[in-house]
Design a protein that fits this description.
about 85% helix; MetI-like fold; mainly alpha; about 250 residues; 10 helices
């Protein structure tokens, strides 16, 4: 029922968009969904075979680095209150800086290589992973810790058998936010400085006033984001079966 309702909303939105675009009749500014679909079909080989793999590589590398960095920082902060007091304000401050302002700086540092785009992706994705994982590691109760100690558990046992399982739902919540942001980060990085990728292609088509071709890679990026989010949700449901049954 929920999927049917979502599909109806999408169809209604597309219908209103199609009608509005045809009435507006300026496809270089607002192309209709049908015009975008036709343009996508014409450009599918370039988009899917040349530019999509580069964007996907940026997203995957950025997410791997964000997960590694975010989880490591979260564990470190949960284990040491002094580290938490020192790093937490810095983490928050890192999200106050507009990404659009930092992206050109990364291009200056790393050039037009993939690493300038990876840097943008990491900066925009590691925060939700770090904060959510840290909240999960800190959500354990004092009574449960004392119970584990009473039963002879070591700190390692408490961490692996209590803290980690408690933190996993929080980690996946942060990861679901991060995977969608990773698509945005990769696109922003490519938009501001790249020689290939879906964001780069969209910007190039904008300079040619080809509105439908600007939207075509955006549609692909949207699909990539949905697939990534669905994949994380699937892994979460598989690994956390105990939560879905409760």
């Amino acid at each position: 029922m929920r999927n049917t309702s979502s599909l109806l909303i999408i169809v209604l939105f597309a219908g209103v968009w199609e009608l509005g675009a045809r009435l507006f009749n300026k496809p270089f500014i607002l192309p209709s969904p049908s015009q975008i679909a036709v343009r996508f079909w014409e450009l599918k080989d370039v988009l899917l075979l040349k530019h999509l793999p580069i964007t996907l590589l940026t997203i995957v590398i950025g997410l791997i680095m964000s997960i590694s960095l975010g989880v490591a920082i979260a564990v470190w902060m949960s284990a040491n209150s002094n580290v938490r007091k020192a790093l937490y304000p810095i983490l928050i401050a890192s999200q106050m800086i507009p990404i659009i302002a930092l992206a050109p700086i990364f291009v200056l540092w790393f050039g037009y290589t993939i690493w300038s785009k990876v840097a943008v992706t990491v900066l925009i994705t590691f925060f939700p992973i770090t904060v959510n994982t840290f909240d999960g590691l800190s959500s354990g109760t004092k009574d449960m810790h004392e119970l584990f100690l009473t039963m002879g558990a070591t700190k390692k046992d408490i961490f692996l058998k209590y803290s980690v399982p408690t933190a996993l739902p929080h980690f996946f919540s942060g990861l679901k936010v991060a995977v969608t942001l990773s698509v945005i980060g990769a696109a922003i990085g490519e938009w501001l400085g790249a020689q290939a990728g879906l964001g780069y292609f969209s910007r190039r088509m904008m300079t040619q006033f080809d509105g439908a071709a600007v939207f075509a890679p955006i549609v692909v990026l949207t699909v990539v984001g949905i697939v990534l989010f669905s994949s994380v949700t699937y892994m979460e449901n598989r690994l956390l079966k105990w939560r879905s049954k409760s």
